[in-house]
Amino acid sequence: MRYFESHAHYDDGRFGKDLPSVINACKEAGVEYIINAGADLSSSKKGIKLAAQYDFIYATIGVHPHSAKTLSEDSFCDLENLVKSPKVVAIGEIGLDFHYDHSPRDIQKKWFIRQMELAKACNLPAIIHSREASEETFNIVKNANLSDREGLGAGVVHCYSGSYEMAVKYAELGYFIGIAGPVTYKNAKKLVETVKKIPIERILIETDCPYLSPEPFRGKRNDSQNLKYICEKISEIKQITVEKTAEITLENGKKLFDIK
Questions:
Q1: Cα 81 from chain centroid?
Q2: With 0-12 CB in 10 A as exposed, 13-18 as middle and 19+ as buried, what is 16?
Q3: Do the Cβ atoms of 125 and 146 come closer than 8 Å?
């Protein structure tokens, strides 16, 4: 089985003591590609270094809504310069988070819009974070009008938690839907409905590690070896083989991030 990890945070300090062994274990478990998602300038730079170190890791650069308040025109210039780095394949993760409100909402919106403009200018896909800001996030994404990049896709709404109806709207704009560990949780009825109804050709799998471990490891540090549990759950919901789910989501990931 071969898997595409569409969203991970291996720059996180929780991997500080055993990162090489974890990454090697993921490779041995069939994880063929890993997208390491930036969440601020520091993690974006660390992701770029990881991508240079491992041939199957790629990096994205962006500032998460939690850290939007740290951005300035000068630091945004630094972000723009990071785009030029080899193996940077997307802008993200970016978006809105009205659950925690670690940054003021107007500041979140300002820098989300600016980073979407950067994605458009660079013809790169965007990795979208949306929590308790469904309509506001969608409106900014829609207005940004990112290119579908000749069928490759405009981006992905990562760790999707919205409604099936909203997922359809994103798919119509050329976005993929990122399915993570919560799909295995008992209270995931809304997410299960989305997975059931959205075409498999619009789904990416992700761990968002070290967060959101699937069952049976909920509460423990997550890593890409656990993609198989997400894959198994999607297969169960869609009543297709695990092999087919892994194969199609692998091809979806390669397409979106334009990995040959």
A1: 21
A2: exposed
A3: yes
Pairing of strands 126-131, 175-179: unpaired
What is the C-alpha separation between 239 and 245, in angstroms, rounded?
10
- Nearest Cα to 228, choosing from 16, 12, 19, 32? 32
> Cα separation of 187 and 133, whole Å?
20
Q: Tell me the pLDDT tens digit for each residue of 65-111.
A: 999 999 999 999 999 999 999 999 999 999 999 999 999 999 999 99
Instruction: Write the burial class of residue 135 (CB in 10 Å: 0-12 exposed, 13-18 middle, 19+ buried).
Output: exposed
3-state secondary structure of 48: helix
Extract the tokens encoding 38: 């930036």
Q: Tell me the per-residue pLDDT of 196-244, one tens digit each, with 9 for 90 and over.
A: 999 999 999 999 999 999 999 999 999 999 999 999 999 999 999 999 9
- The predicted model scores a pTM of 0.97
Start-to-end CA span in the chain (Å): 19
Burial letters 188-219, b for 16+ CB under 10 A, else e: beebbebbeebebebbbbbbbbbebbbeeeee
Q: DSSP letters along 71-91, please?
A: --HHHHHHHHHHTTSTTEEEE
Rg (CA), the chain: 17
**Residue among 225, 244, 245, 255 nearest 25 (CA):** 225
